[in-house]
Amino acid sequence: MKVSPLRVLNAFLKTAAIQHPPRKLKLFVERLPVKLDKFVNEILDNLEFILDNDPDGENSYFLSDATRGSVRFSDLEYLQERLEETEWGSMKELMGQLQHFSETYVNTDDTRVRKQILGILVQDFERIQEVWRNRAQEYTEAARNVNDEWRDQIKDETFVKRFNRLAKSVQAVADLAQEVPAKLTEQLRLIAPRFTAEPERPASDDVEPLYHASIKAKQLYQKGFSDRPQQTAGLGGATEGISFTSDLYVAKEIMRALKEAIMIAKGQVKWHEIMDWARREGIKHELEKYFRPELRDPQFDKRDPENVMRLYKAYLHFSEFEGGVSRYNPLFFMENLDMFRRANPRDVGVIVADVDMTDPDIKYLSAEHEYRVPPRAVHEITKLIS
Question: Could you tell me how many helices (H) and strands (E) the chain has, helices first?
């Protein structure tokens, strides 16, 4: 039975230009050598299989023919040799250096040393960006040609599968070489000393996709934003402009928190349920300690939604800093629950919109990667996530 070849992702899809630092910087740096080692070993494993399993030269001929000579077995042999080299400037040298700096970063509390290591990592990955970007383009295009031609010209489906895996791993190294400098450069920008009251806006394209979490997302998706954005009841509770974020993760976490807040206000999420969430994350003791004075008061009512909301906000705080799950804490709730009581959790969602980033009245707040956007700068609402 014939097996369909693996799909190869397009190497360069259009993405937003705005970059965000790693969510957990220490973990990000710690995992870098593991990820790079995994991708390189996958490449070597597939190269070895392809090169060692072509006794008749049929696959070699097919690859050259299908790719119009752009990728040949000699190119695969060259890539294998380069990855196995150990001299200065080789991938193995970079991987060894990466392991050393990763361990040093994780085990030091010296802020100056950590900044220096981040700068070195940026330089190291920038050094390999171009060669791996070009290599990924070549192999991704070659994989497309192989997938288009293999049924008519070759019987070895295993070769096709292995070449697809090879192209995917090459693309993974190229993606990592682009991601690391972008994220760490943004991290360095944020921690660098500045003397201006207003944070510097990250670089962006003229038009960017931004995200707005709201308890009235369905209505906004149908009718659009009004000239009085403070009524949209979304991220940040802004009164000047519509509160957007450039980080989809942040928007989704706010959406999640809005739905939970509505359920708390309606009495659908109880005190004991939130304490159970905390127990699973290992932070129940922190909440019990925080609420010890109230819990000793016989008049304290755990059924009161106001008190449950206080517990929920404390849970988010301790989860962010102490919990194993580490929930995102949007830090946007007010004490008034009336708005949440009147809301329908099914209306909560995230609006995705294309925004004119050249508008001079857009204000940037680094917390939650937030942008206060005047309604006129919203070009188009493109999607509703709920």
Answer: 13, 6
Residue 367, pLDDT above cutoff 70:
no
Q: How far apart are CA 15 and CA 23, in angstroms?
A: 19
Name 257's Cβ contacts closer than 8 Å, sequence gap at least 6.
Answer: 316, 328, 330, 332, 333
Are residues 352 and 385 in contact, defined by beta-carbon separation less than 8 angstroms? yes
Helix (H) or strand (E) holding 378: strand 378-385
From the number of C-beta atoms within 10 Å of its C-beta (0-12, 13-18, 19+), residue 120 rates as middle
Q: What is the dihedral of CA 159, 164, 169, 174, to 10 degrees?
A: 130
Pairing of strands 207-214, 363-365: unpaired
Long-range (24+ apart) CB contacts under 8 A made by 141-147 are: 141/67, 141/70, 142/63, 142/66, 142/67, 142/70, 142/71, 142/167, 143/8, 143/167, 144/8, 145/66, 145/67, 145/68, 146/5, 146/62, 146/63, 146/66, 146/67, 147/5, 147/6, 147/7, 147/8
Confidence bin at 198 (pLDDT 50/70/90)? low
> What is the value of pTM for the model shown?
0.60
